[in-house]
Amino acid sequence: MDSGRLLLLLYFRSCDTLQDSGRLLLLYFRSCPLETQTKMWETVVMVTLATVCAVTIIMCVFGHVYRLRSRKVFSTASMQGKTVIITGASAGIGKATAFDLAQRKARLILACRNIKKASYVAAEIQSSTGNSAVEVRQLDTSSLASVRAFASRILAEEHRIDVLVLNAGIGGKNVRTLTSEGLETIMATNHFGHFLLTNLLLGLLKESAPSRIVVTASMAHTLLTSLNLKELNFENAKYWSLQAYAQSKLCNILFARYLAHLLKDTGVVVNSLCPGFVATEIFEKAEGFAVKLYGFLAQYVGKTCEQGAQTIIQLTVAEETQNITGEFFENCQVSDGVTNLAIDDGLAKKVWEASELLVGLDPTEQHY
Prior knowledge:
This protein is an alpha/beta fold. The chain is built from 12 helices and 8 strands.
């Protein structure tokens, strides 16, 4: 290497910014003979192709192993004569759960925002399983008014609820948006709506005991090292959709944990779960590089929706989980991956109290 190129290389390494480095690299490339440029391009292409191939192989192997390690529900328990409400049942793991429970002869109420889409799913389930007891009800968990309307109808029409599966959820955009009631949209959809719904139906769930409440959370809660109770609605805090999602899932776990404490000895068990790394529609409309990357990888190495639904089904039907309450499950078993933040009982109580205020829960609606 001549002295000129050596000086250029030393200067290149000393550049403070990637932009400056790129410019110098381009200048060096243009200064090379055409034959050298061609060889350099060939090298870049070969290295790129080799990298893509290696990453693809690694992803395929990882995905295969990950899916093989996915546990399956072996319980053959029938759900005949039992009524199950599933929020967010028109797609993803909610839909997969509904299919399984329909095969077990459960009476299903699909509580969904998109009635048309949910009706197609209900018809598909009825046709595939032969179970005609599949109904659709309007429910938008981001709207407290919709939650109240849904709960009022259920209480007026139903005599029992054996299982309440709180599964509806969204990702989000990196711009904070509010519902008509002034709640941050991700928190409203994933946590506040389910919190209010559970409280409104709690009296009937207790009357129907033994009954179960199953809350779909996520290992995304591990992204948080603290929780600011004054900023559950992100009114003054810096907003990031992934943080809002992680916070909503942490609140799911804490809510389920504290509710299990309140319902001790009532015959109602409450557990939360992580379905795993699953390719679902939740990330299609979400924004942010990290979320998009997660969604992309899930398509290739994640579980199928049927595999992701197994832990929900386990907590809904299995005999061995009928007396377990207040736990966080993953892969059909109690998880050891839950953070200390998520098992802080003092924090769980504070999240409950803050949620009561934010959803406007009246003392007459407290059935615990």
